[in-house]
Amino acid sequence: MTPDRVALYLQDAHPLSEGIELAKYAEAHGFEAVWQAESRLVRDAIVPMAAFAAHTSRIKIASGVINNWTRNIGLLAATFLTLDDLAPDRIICGIGAWWDPLARKVGIERRKPLSAMRETIEVLRPLLRLENVTYHGEFHYVDGIQLDVVHGRKTPRHVPIYIGATGMKMMELAGEIADGVCLNYLVHPKYNLEALDALQQGAKKAGRSLEDIDRPQLVICSVDHDRQKALNAARKMMTQYLGQQPHLMKASGVSQELLDDIHQVLTWPATEEEIENAMHLVPDDVVQMCTASGSPAEVKAKVREYLDHGATCPILYPLGDPRLMIDIFSEGYHE
Length: 335
Known about the structure:
Layout: E1 7-10, H1 16-28, E2 33-36, H2 46-54, E3 60-63, E4 66-67, H3 73-86, E5 91-96, H4 102-105, H5 113-128, E6 133-136, E7 141-145, E8 161-165, H6 168-177, E9 180-183, H7 191-205, E10 216-223, H8 227-244, H9 246-251, H10 256-265, H11 272-278, H12 284-290, E11 292-294, H13 296-308, E12 313-319, H14 322-329
Helix pairs in contact: 3-5, 5-6, 6-7
């Protein structure tokens, strides 16, 4: 059974020209959105988003996710206004708090991440409504600024803001102030139940309900008719994340013992050789615990598990052949 809503996630595994073709292919096969990553120091999200927007006509284009530290708030608002000019009412701003050690290595101290995120959204949203904004905060200080549209649409822009959240305090904040939350990947479906509770608590503060908050979820999807090939592709990805983002892995219920074993082999950033040497430590059941990996039937069942645990739309991160994955999740769709 295929989900009613489905989206595509692209990181840096494909040349940009191929990413454009995949966005077009996903659109033609009924996918509702393409989310572009911006995580490591490899590919920013904005340039690919503009490319996808320019080559499609219906599919939504989302940042999955940019961070709230590295772009000045005025530039951030102007960037999303520009994207909306390119693809009116099809742009989604997915934004997260970034992660260490990467942030620290480029000189950013991620202090008070909740306050910083709240301020970012409290300034960004009225700017996108083309309001004049004065805001004297701890992280953002602006005096009487607004998006100065001289040529073009002078109407408020409808750019939903989704917080990419992993921790429960950020999840609660998303429930309070965001249009949606981008639930993380490499988590166990049961993690979602705790996330839903936090979202609901935040929603209550704002007089909203859980149903008012969209909850798309990133899902690693490694599908192949050769089941072992699919599992090994996901194992490699999981090994890398066990090494570089252990906070994600802890949230998934991965044992500290396995994390410690991985860290004996991996440094940061991990080399290809280190990842290959550590892969054998990660058993099949751990791979399938936190990813949709294996045969088409197994993958669909795992995605359904995330939906049954509160996600509203899978954002599928393809390992292997992305067109095969799109085909499998668009069965029964006719343009």
